[in-house]
Amino acid sequence: MPDADELVANALAAVRGTDVRQAERQLDQLMVGTGAADGTTAVDAALLRRLVRALGRLWPRGWQPVDVDRLTSRRLDPRSARLVREAMAAQRREQAEPIPAWWDDQLRELTADVRDDGHDVLAAWTAAEGLDRADALRAAVDTLALVESLPPIAVLRPPPGTTGALTARSAGTTRSGSPMLDRVRALLAKAESTTFPAEAEALTGKAQELIARHSIDEALLAAGSERGDVPGGVRLSTDTPYAGAKALLVQEVAAANRCEAVWSDDLGFATVLGWPADLVAVELLYTSLLVQATAAMLRGRAERRSGSGRRTKVWDESFLNAFALRIGERLRTATEAATEAADQASAETAGAERLLPVLAARGEAVRERLDTLFPGVTRHRLSVRDAEGWSSGTSAADRASLDVGGGRKQPRQVPGRPDRR
């Protein structure tokens, strides 16, 4: 009789194949177990052990706990994601190497409801999900197959056990402790909740103005220190529906905040590279503007004549693409106005222009980071499939104008789709 590890390996190989009957036969073998008195417990332990090992191999390949959790929910289902969280908690209990603080912060948020005793993890998960033995084993094998199949991605921060893991600064994950960011969050929350376009215009515009000023202050502060920081990165979800439009919005928000964005459409996220304060800004703005764009799209859809489902989908996508491009222009206008004002103040204070060279150097560092992590990116042109949707999306973005800095409006351009890995 095969041992537990062999039974798991056979079931995994069958799931990866195309013979459905063979996969079911191997699942039946897992149900039977090793034939020993503790055969079921041995199978559960073997499954968990292999899942923990698979997770440990992902960390040096660029994956972070939030990435694995998000993709498991996207590719499988929430209960499989909960199993992964249980396995990540178990894997963390076994880790002896230095663990960066940001890593534990991610795990703490994901595993707040996970038991900490580490015993009978699979059995406890099965009971909590209300699954019978067969369904639990099938879900566990499918989850293991997914985790073991994940490809290498860009390493944005030193993972556990590597050089610099304990000294790496947390990029783009600041949640509290900054009065400015608290003000920005409050402004954006009001912009999301209001039904008056003029009010949303003022609130979101003020948020971008504060963000731009904060970014400039951070740049000047860093220029006067010897910290030797390098640009970091964050990953933002671009799940369906309208994943391409969401990725375009990420790109526009990133560009307005001196960041670079690369879309990995097959994995359902966009990677944003930049300096810590700018990454925080992109996260905040993208999240808020996605809410605002979706609300405006739904209002616009209700006002137009009803049509086929396919027609509505094309209209929605064109609407969101136009909204993203127009908002991007407004964001850049606000940023340029804040930069111009700060540069004039810097020149008067320092006796010479010093801000623009600092920003240029930081921008070049971000582009170098992009070339290092994503040497093979390509750019795709944006296509418009519904003129009415495009016009409505542009109008909605105009109603949410961000031109609060008094700067000149940029001529409208239609750039390509986001870079894709």
UniProtKB/TrEMBL annotation:
Pfam families: DUF2786 (PF10979). It comes from Micromonospora zamorensis. Residues 180-218 form the DUF2786 domain. This is DUF2786 domain-containing protein. Residues 158-178, 384-421 are annotated as: Disordered. The lineage of its organism: Bacteria, Bacillati, Actinomycetota, Actinomycetes, Micromonosporales. InterPro entries: DUF2786.
